[in-house]
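Hi all, long-time lurker, first post. I run a small reading group and we've been trying to get comfortable going from sequence to structure in the token notation. Rather than ask abstract questions, I figured I'd post a concrete chain and ask someone more experienced to write out its structure so we can walk through it together at our next meeting. Sequence below, copied exactly:
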Amino acid sequence: MLQRRSAEHWAGRLYMRGVSLRITRILSTVTAITPNGLTYLMMATGILAGAGLLVPGLAGAVAGALLIQLYLLLDCVDGEVARWRRQTSLTGVYLDRVGHYMSEAALLTGLGLRGADLLHRAGSAAHWEWAFLGALAALGAILIKSETDLVDVARARSGLTAVEDSASVPRSAGVARARRVASLLKFHRLVGAVEASLLILAAGIADQAHGGLLFTRLAIVVLAAIAMLQTVLHLLSIVLSSRLR
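-- Answer (accepted) --
Happy to help. Here is the structure in token form:
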């Protein structure tokens, strides 16, 4: 009853569902908290993860990673409570999507501000170019999700039903081959909240050992490049598939 219909995130399959199901049973029986209330908490936690990255040093990277784990937990629990109580709703689906948009954008924006060194940990002045790259990464993360969601919007406005999975395969053989390669490499996942937080944590650990913000700034460049590239490739994949037909 508590399983998702959509594809499960690897972290959910690996460990988080084992935790979330226990918490869901407690919340569903001894509290009156609503699924949408949990989704609002998920949003707040994701935004706080981005803000946590502004804390200098390794503490900020650890705070961001831990808050994203809590965000993931709440993302599992809100849907489980909704299905347990039979309180699923369109509002809940909408809030869940908005929560993902806001949280991923906040995390990547926070990473850019961390690299800008607002508190002058690695120098006497802030370097706003890193904040700009972080904002680009955040914009790319939002656009990638928007490109997927707007397929259903376009189809609904044309009176069509939701798209089938088989329609996602591009009609062009070359684009289909490139899509398979990208899917195998899974580099696009790095702009997701969980993966990005782990990369940021690894960069924070490396910076702690090395000194300065070299590895954090390298992570910003990598995530911004992936986000921008994936925005273009994902758009082409949709337009050249049968999803809009």
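A couple of things your group might point at:
Residues 128-157 form the longest helix (30 residues).
The mean pLDDT is 88.
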